[in-house]
Every structure is written in C-alpha cells, then in structure tokens.
Design brief:
Layout lengths: L1 H12 L4 H18 L1 H10 L1 H14 L16 H27 L2 H12 L9 H16 L33 H17 L5
Amino acid sequence: MLILLWMTGVAVVQFLSPLWLFATLVGCAFGAWWFAPLRSLRLLRRVRFLVLAILVLFAGFTPGDALWTAFQSVSPSREGVMLAAEHAGRLLAVVLCVALLLERLSVNRLVSGLYALLQPFERFGLPTERLAVRLMLVLRYVETVPRGGWQGWLDDDIDLDGDFAEPVVIGRECLAGREIALLVLLAAGGMMWLGVWR
C-alpha cells in the first residue's frame, strides 16, 4: 500500500504546476524533517551535486531575458532560473519521499513489494527478478558509506567482503485484495487523466 501511494505521488509530482510543486515540496520537507531527519539529510547530501548541475545547466544555458540586466553577458535567464527551480524542486520532492519510504520500510520489504507489483508484467517479458536483485544491490550501496567517504568508491582495492558479500535474498509477497483494488483504481484514474478515455 505504501509503495503504491509513493509511486503515485512520484508520478503526480512530475505534472504539478510550480505553485503546487512548491506547496508539495514544503509539505515533503516538513514530513521528512519530522519523521526521517537523518535519512533525509543523508540523501540530500548525496544529490547536492546533481541539484547544482541542474541549476547551472538550466539557469545558464536556457535562452531568455537576462536576470541581471547590468551584466547581460554573464547573467542567467529568467526562464532558465524558473526551469532550474522547477526541476530541482521535483528532484528534491522525490528524494524526500524516498527518505520517508525507506524510514517506514526496510530495503528487503521495499524490494519485495516492488517485486510483487511488477510480477504480473513477467508475462510481457519484463525480467522482474533481475530488476529486483539490481535494485537491492543499488540500495545496499546507497545505504552504506564507504571508508574514506566518496573517495572510497574510486579505490581499486575496495574490500567487497562484509555487507557486499552477503547473499541477496528477496522475499515473495502477495498483493492483498485492497492493494489490487487500489492498483486498478490508480491505473483507471491515470488513464482517464491522460485523456485515454476522452
């Protein structure tokens, strides 16, 4: 249920207007500060360079009216600043939602839940087991801080013993009736919203 709501929230965030996006970001920031402060700060620290890259690329390379008219040759554009703020806001909202989700669910339960949701798509050739294993490995790396900080990932002699040598175990969970009903309602609502049934 939590994973379905999280997936819906992440999808909706991508289509919000700037005003609603700002309100959503404030709400996510308050919820993350209240329920998952340490995890939120850790995840925000890890995406800070990505946010900086978004700000620089959109603000500096989007054509439009100069923000600082006195320094037009080096000034970012107003349109670029708005786009940069919008895309950075969407990223931060998603990161804060991830922090809240990981605070409530362990990595094993999160991957097991996603595996259960994606299992019906195996009939169409989607390799759900491979996706689940890869997601489990990625989340293990994200949750583990290497020795020496981020420079530890660049070390050729990195020790893969310990946490990374543990076997990957993915639990098999079945969707309950209410989760199937919610999934059907969300899919129908999404198709109607996108205009498929107009």
